Structures are given as C-alpha cells and as structure tokens.
Amino acid sequence: MKPFNPVLARSKTMRYALPSRFWMDANHFIIAAAILLIAFVYALQQNRRNFFLIISTIAIASSAGVLILIKLPWIDFLTRISYTIFDFALIMTVIVTIILVVSDLLSLKMKST
C-alpha cells in the first residue's frame, strides 16, 4: 500500500518523518498508560456526570487491555478485536477529556467576564 502523500512516498523521507513501527510498538503501552492516568486524574476533579463519562472510556480501554494480555488460544478472535477496541477507547478517552477541558476553560472565561 502506497502512502497518500507523495513526499512521504520516498522511503528515506518516510523513515525520517515518521517513527518506525518498532518504536510505535515498543512505546504503545507507556503512551497508553500515560493517557489513561492523565484522564483518570482529570476525572477525579470533575462532577459526577463527567466523571462517569471519562471513567467509562477508561474502563472499556482497561477491559480490552486485559483481554489483550490474556491471549488464550480459544479466544484468539476476541484478542485480535481487543486491539482495535483498546485503541478506539483510548482515542475516545482523549477526545472526551479534551472536550471537557476546553468546555471547562470556556466556562471559566465566561465567568471571569
């Protein structure tokens, strides 16, 4: 599959501009754990509705992460799907947290004026 961007189509440019697959695989857990920890700390400071919204995305990501780590042969299909669910839940955690942070900042700005 060829990259969409013609500049990145050259392998030397692509290796320079993007992290390698090995780097991404090696640091996936650390980055995901940092995202989930930051979201959890932020959720502790929120009201009840926002807390449960953030915690539910964290719970989905954590459940999928546990299924990834188990790797039982008889649930191989579920393990493969868990990678996608984990990444999707991680992205949703980031999006929800960013939206709540921006809304908090805008409400603070409105209160100060």
How would you describe this protein?
By secondary structure, this protein is mainly α. It has one domain. It has helices at residues 11-17, 21-44, 48-70, 76-112. The longest helix is centred in the last third of the chain and has 37 residues, at 76-112.
Show the helix and strand layout.
Layout: H1 11-17, H2 21-44, H3 48-70, H4 76-112
Largest sheet: none
Low-confidence segments: none
What percentage of amino acids are in beta strands?
under 5%
Structural class: mainly alpha
Question: Percent helix among the residues?
Answer: over 70%
Summary?
The chain has helices at 11-17, 21-44, 48-70, 76-112. By secondary structure, the chain is mostly helical.
Search tags:
113 residues; mainly alpha; 81% helix; 0% strand
